[in-house]
Amino acid sequence: MQQVVIVGRKRDNKAIISALQDAGVLHIVPISSGPLSTGALTGPEAEARKTAERLLARAESTLSELGAYRTSTSNTPSRESFASIIEDAAAPAGNVARRLNELNSDIDAALTFGEVVRTLANLAGVLDRSRRIALLPFTAREDDDLKALDAVLSDQQSGNLAGRYALETRKVNTGKTEVYAGLLAVLREDRDKARAALGKARLGELRLPGRFDGMPLSDAAAEMERLSREGKETRGALEEERRRLAEANGPTLFAVRDALADEVAVYDVQSLGARGKYSLALEGYVPTDRVPDLKAALDKFGTAVSYEMHDVDVLHDERVPVQLKNNSYVKPFEMVLGMLNLPRYGTFDPTWVIALFFPFFFGYIIADIAFGLMFLAAGMWFLGKARRGEGWDLSFFGTYVQPDALRSLGFITNMMAAWSIVWGLLTGEFLGTLFEHLHIFYINDGRHSGLIPIVWPRIETEFANTALLFALAFGILQVLWGWAIRVKLSLDHGDRHHLWEALGMLGGLVGLIMLAFVSSAGKNLGAATNFGNPLVLVMYAGFLVFVVGVIVSKVWLMVVELMSQGGAIVSYARLFAVGLVSAQLAKLSTDLGWSIFQAGAANNIVFGILAAILGAAIALALHALALALTLIGHILQPLRLHFVEFLNPTGYHNETSPKYTPFRRLSPAGSKK
């Protein structure tokens, strides 16, 4: 990465900034100190910026009201027509959005209060239109509330309403719970006294939301009844109208929005630079391999522009942006790393580690051919939509997955599916033990037979220790690897303090691991004094390095941290544990379905066919339920091992750098006006 300082004539500043925008390689940072002025624009430029920002906000709000997504491109119209184009689309869009919001509010009100209002309307009869009688509707949850109200109303000292009111209640089932709908009728001049009585009984007058407030109960009930019948159809018509408006205006609005965003970005860059009476200075960063593009954009100005480049200060400049560069296999997994902050520039990019181990760990947990094929089908569906330039509309989550993101998601899903199938072949699992029942896979213990022997029988008790040690081996690998990375980074940066801390932790962990091997996980601690065993010598050497690391770094809490890091290694046992639970649930589901089939087949063919259908249906339902309840955990567990157990020792979470976001044009370069 190269740091760049650019100085040009003030009268050429827009041309220079536009050239940088076309080049699309410079990450611009604000100049916050110096004799030149910085900060907000003033004068005509400030007014022009406000106008562009107002139009941009209007365009974005219109696109939001239309619920439009970019599905096609459109040529950018002339700058003079932006305002009229936006307003021509905004008026009908705003009208439809307003009507749709009002309808949704009315439908929600009808769903919430419909039954109560219908009951109250029946109780009121024609009294809700009376000029002399005031009706106060209310709801109560308990009989005791009604008794308390009746006692208050009957009390001669409570507003003198005794004998001057009528009270009727009905129990109503709202679909979620049962409540009492009540109607208190009094003379209009006693309305305030009746409201006070409701308050004393800890009840309140029912006020309907929106336009239903103040509407006679019979009219409100009739309108809510109409909404319950026609609301969904009306909403569908409005949504269809909004969709047509989005198709008609969306591409042009997106083009206008992009052009306005480019225009506002030019003003933003002006405010980031340092401005003198006759000059403008800009500072930024450019990747070394994109320097020729930057030079080509600036050299055409000749002597009107001066610039200087030099290598960035990796150790002290916290503003250096990060651009992740990975090969075609690893790049899709940058989406996974995107859940975290970016790494500090000049440190370690763990994307390739995640790309290597995350699908492997996921496959180790799932380890089922059928589930792997299901994930493969989902991944291919994602890729198919991405190839067609389509996104994934997740409106119920309020989001939309763009085609590029969907392409990465499809690739990641396919890798997860591939390892699930590979491990499924090793464990012999297809919907749990289905292929074992069909004698396609079998446990090679001399008592079973089939076509293919199971290599990794993880659900067998005798194999538990092997599967557990296999999972812990990855814990040893990744935790030690994390501290080794910390050692290298400390050496690169000349950080003696963290170097000895990392060396100490690395030595201490090696000592703990050797102690576990030598003593058979603590069963034979006496073996730790057998100096004829090379592992014992390695163990004591590791503990010696740890003690030296504690003393030199003066981080006395390393003793506690060593125990914590030992626990981090043990955390990898969750790969075995979660996978075993997944396998057992699949086994139980299939075994239940198979036992139903066998019970029916023992009678006759007809019962056998019916039992097979019933057993398959029950088994598939249980498989679907188990997968739905555990899938998120199967994904999160491998992620947690990478994000916490592996990356914590590297110091990844301690520092970060901003993302490399080059100043570039959103609209086509040829659209500049």
TrEMBL record:
Gene Ontology cellular component annotations, sorted alphabetically: proton-transporting V-type ATPase, V0 domain; vacuolar proton-transporting V-type ATPase complex
Membrane topology: Multi-pass membrane protein
Transmembrane segments: 352-384, 467-487, 499-517, 537-557, 606-632
Keyword Magnesium: no
Pfam families per record: V_ATPase_I, V_ATPase_I_N
GO molecular function terms listed in the Swiss-Prot or TrEMBL record: ATPase binding; proton-transporting ATPase activity, rotational mechanism
Gene3D superfamilies (UniProt xref): 1.20.1460.20, 3.30.70.2170, 3.30.70.2750
Keywords: Ion transport, Membrane, Transmembrane, Transmembrane helix, Transport
GO BP annotations listed: vacuolar acidification
Domain V-type ATP synthase subunit I N-terminal: 112-208
Protein localization: Membrane
Major localization class: membrane
Top-level taxon of the source organism: Bacteria
Family: Belongs to the V-ATPase 116 kDa subunit family.
UniProt protein name: V/A-type H+-transporting ATPase subunit I
Organism field: Deinococcus yavapaiensis KR-236
